[in-house]
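Appendix B: complex inputs.
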Amino acid sequence: MNQNAPSSRHSISKLATSAPPLILLAILALIPLAEPGPNTIRLLFVSLVWVTASVAWNILGGFAGQVSFGFAVFFGLGAYTTAISLNAGLDRLSSLGLAAIVGAITSLLIGMPTFRLRGPYFAIATIGVSEAVRVVMTNLAVTGGASGYRITEKGAFNQHLHFYMALGLAAAAVAISMRIRYSKFGLALIAVREDEDAASDLGVNPFATKLLGHAVAAALTAAAGGVYAGYAAFVHPNGVFGFDISVAILLMPTIGGIGTIWGPVIGAVVYGLVQEELIASFPQFHLLLYGGLLILIILFEPGGVLGLLKKSFRLLRARTGIGVHT
Amino acid sequence: MNIVDFLNLLVAAVLLAGVYAAMSVGMTIIYGVLKIVNLAHAGFLMLGAYFVYELYTRLHIDPLLGVLLAFPLFFFIGIALYWLLIRQIPRSDQPTLSSLLLLFGLWLVLQNLGYLVWGNADRAILTPRTFSTFEIGPIIFPTIRLVVFGVALASLAGLEFVLHKTWFGRAVRALMQNSDAGRIVGVNVERTAQVAFGIGIAFAGAAGGLLAMMYSFTPDFGGSFLLRAFVIIVLGGLESFAGVAVGALILALVETFSILVIPSGYQPAIAFSLLVLALVILPDGIAGLWKKRQLWT
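Resulting structure:
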């Protein structure tokens, strides 16, 4: 964002791409002033936490093509780190920062043994990691083990404060995702996804690239877990390390459109708004629906909602002839 | 620990290794031929368990016969799923994003269909065999484990025969070594892949039945065994059948003997720790170690 625009056309297109998100952000920031009621704010808050995690997963899964089934481990560790540091007297922002650091370090522990190798090792390892950490946290006495861990609130509960923290984090996640996508680092991530050998021949270090992508994604997800913990004021191993969380985090970008900037945002909003209804009406079987959805998307529209929109747009344009240069 | 305890644990570990090998071999054949990690493996283990259970409780069919019946049934389920799902996704020499997400979705569907049909109550297959034992000197053999071990070994021997003595087996091994070269010498890749997928699912279903004779189960039953199967095939080098046997033995030994030092609450984390350890120390698995030695000598 700090380079000077080389031509006016360039700066106009830049304005065109950065203006709508800023307008969206402004509208979202003004919502609490309209006093829409605590339940609406809560729903928005949860959706924004999901947006952060979804955008984060996409940085590694979408840009670099490395599928992780274990992002709950970062969400959970972020939640626990924030809870513990809040109780230790740290302020909210530093707690989130600490959570992000813990997430990034954990991501290195998972990435170092697995990213060096070709093949499915990373995906395989991530299947087990959340479960392993959940088991350890359930047995760990320091954090309350299976009874969970409570945050002692110091001031009065301020829902708007939590909403703005979630909004700020989600906006930061989207900004980071945009910044990465059009940077050299982002191109390296995509090169690794497309062809690791070719990328390596062109001077990209696939190992370091994947490791860094994983760390950024993990830090953001851990911060999302932290924001969530601050709101809920209670964390439990089966909740924050749950299999559902890992499934949700990979499902959202898939719904919206893997590898795009706005796909994961759309997916997270759809998921955030729908899942409450779904869990209320099908408490046992929402995972069945999610699994079916995953299969259908991969078979019929790997581009997700965004891909579907683009296709219908193109179809519309071809039918009506609008915007077609002949 | 005295020598008798040691021998008892050793016997338990070896007997466990048999069923572990049978449970993992299906994943190896699917990975070897299709380069797909069958994440839905856990779902088929679970379905196999309930299949044998339903046959036993409703029709009073002996669980052993149930396991034998599981082979053809799950083979055809595998063939159908290959036609329906697997052949739709682009083929690659590495697991792709779409194959991983597709099979993960299939796992979620199978697991939660299990909850829909059977609920989350614990089930177990109890036959007169279940609690009987016999002893040779001071060493105790649980009958059921011996039987399961025998069936597992027999099915592995059958697979070994097919792979080494039939045209199909040679085609499978050719594709595992080099799929392009296999195509050049006239292997029908699509057909071979379909049958290989069917065999992989057949082994998963049958192994689920075998596991159900030893443990109680819920629709979530496959999950912990999925991770164990991963550890075993990674230890074995992903594509080696001999490696699977060795990997199964290592995991069974570690799990059995770790009871002595690690609190039981932490047991589920053992498989994962072993997986990470294997990745750090033996990235190519035991088969890789073997290959390296051959290169040096």
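Chain B has a mean pLDDT of 86.
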